[in-house]
Amino acid sequence: MGFSNIAKASDDDEGHTMVRITYPLTQTITLVDNRGFCKMGSYETGEIFAQLGNLLPLDTPVEWNEGFGLANRIVEAENLVKVSDFIVPIFLYSAKKGICAEDEDELLELIVTARDLTGVYPIVVLTDKSSEKTRDVTRKFKKLGVERIFALENYTLEDHRKSASKHQEVLRFLYEVIKDVEFQVGQPRNPEEEMTERKTFVLRYIHHNDLKIQFQRTEMETLKEQSNLKEKMRHQREKYEQKFQEDERKFKEEMRKLEEEFEAQKLHRQPQSYKPSTYKDSKSKKRRTWLF
Ligand SMILES: Nc1nc2c(ncn2[C@@H]2O[C@H](COP(=O)(O)OP(=O)(O)OP(=O)(O)O)[C@@H](O)[C@H]2O)c(=O)[nH]1
Ligand SMILES: [Mg+2]
Known about the structure:
Elements: E1 21-24, E2 30-33, H1 42-52, H2 67-76, E3 90-94, H3 104-118, E4 123-127, H4 134-143, E5 149-151, H5 164-185, H6 191-269, H7 279-283
Parallel strand pairs: 3-4, 4-5
Antiparallel strand pairs: 1-2
Helix pairs in contact: 1-6, 2-6
This protein binds guanosine-5'-triphosphate and magnesium ion.
């Protein structure tokens, strides 16, 4: 077939795919395009684990919600999922994003849990192969234990000329997936029991995360209360200091007035030995002693 933008790729950075969309490839193989996630918070991880555990129906919205909402959706989905389905986890990653050191632990948890839930080590498909970061990203995924990494330059709206190497890369990757499923089919399995195990794991994970989030919230609230209290105390202290300074100022003012009054009274008492001199006095020979 000629090029057609079936997956509705678009140029902006915003995610448009909000539903797990199914694309039947054959009677038994379905390709599922998922909602992308740019961070691996506990809500995103919980949702992805529930998907990988085949606990959520396809072609329904992908939501990052709190434990209760997700647990509810898992229960509601019980009759909608096919217990015998195999899920092969494909982790699609743009090489040009690179992988920073802080993300490595979260990626490792995602990869290892994906393996535990599906029985298959995730296959990594790197897009934007021509990026200068492709080598480093490949090396980091290998370090995280991923063995099968396919790097390719996607067909895009701007450049969708048919290329043998692109075709081959996609076919090689699909071939690996089929090989995995063939291997799994050859193994003895008990789909119901495995489903229960996966459900227990995911529900425990959700519960554990909820506790963690509740704990973090309580801790945040305590910190906020403590900081409010500190602020209140600081405000009160400032008020007291202001009042203290004001009282001190008033006290000093009062003292100054009293001292002035006292001085004035002292002056007032003097006059018994004091008589203002008169012209006559100045003429008299008698001497006066002035006391202060
Ligand atoms: N050059 C180049 N561009 C690519 C490659 N892969 C995807 N793109 C472009 O990147 C942009 C985003 O691609 P999308 O397919 O919309 O990305 P997405 O992650 O599926 O996004 P949503 O489905 O909207 O969540 C589009 O413009 C694509 O053409 C690639 O390998 N090389
Ligand atoms: Mg898409």
